[in-house]
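From: lab user (bench 3)
To: helpdesk
Subject: output format question, protein + flavin mononucleotide

Hello, I'm new to running complex predictions and I'm not sure whether the block I got back is the full result or only part of it. Here's what I submitted:
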Amino acid sequence: MSTRTLAFDEAVRNRFSSRAFLPTPLTEEQIRQVLTDAQHSPSNCNTQPWHVHIASGKTKDTLEQAMIRNDQTDLVTPDFTFNYADFYGDYFDRSQEQARIYYEALGVSREDKAKRHEVYLRNFRFFGAPHVAFLFMPSFGDNVRVASDIGMYAQTFLLSLTARGYAGIPQTLLGFHADTVRKILNVSGQYRLLFGISFGYADPNALTHHVRMERIPVDESVILHN
Ligand SMILES: Cc1cc2nc3c(=O)[nH]c(=O)nc-3n(C[C@H](O)[C@H](O)[C@H](O)COP(=O)(O)O)c2cc1C
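Helpdesk reply: Thanks, we reran it on our side. This is the complete output you should expect:
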């Protein structure tokens, strides 16, 4: 098996959030290579607070069924809040724009609530991915620092997937069913679920495969001081 990986700039620019996967699974060795890369992520005081559970096969199917059931009964148990209404100004506009681009690629109109809900539910079907990683964390103080460590881990994980020819998508929505995920995966209540990452091989024939989200220019995010 080839272990050649993409160069850094290629991996960074080729990474995208895939929302359609082939059913083809990765081997355990391939998954372990990605995990070994991600383990090199930095963290506050080297606490390495990531506690990761990866579900595939029947366990993944059980999670999918349970989360879809929760949706039917409007049950959500997030460990952390998330509300689009909290975004404002440019941040709100960018969130609207990314949704517009995605739904337009799928040919789903704003008014078609039923179809939009169906598309939303694809999150809990892991977009067809053969694997899903759940990123749990211990709780320290207000949790901001530890959550940033998990973000560091997630980005290394995602870049490693891309560099090795796979794809992934981080999903806040998977954290909406924290109690269910803890129960099925037998995770202690001391760990909080920040988000999940569905991963596998991107489906090159999916309508959204070539969709890329724009970035604002560097100078809109950064001020250089001399
Ligand atoms: C922490 C985090 C959580 C996210 N949660 C979701 C999610 O629940 N569902 C989804 O479809 N996309 C989710 N995304 C993907 C973002 O929409 C995506 O990263 C953004 O639009 C930029 O696109 P790109 O990743 O393709 O460059 C999430 C991204 C991050 C970083």
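A quick orientation on your result: The CA atoms of residues 84 and 91 lie 10 Å apart. Let us know if anything else is unclear.
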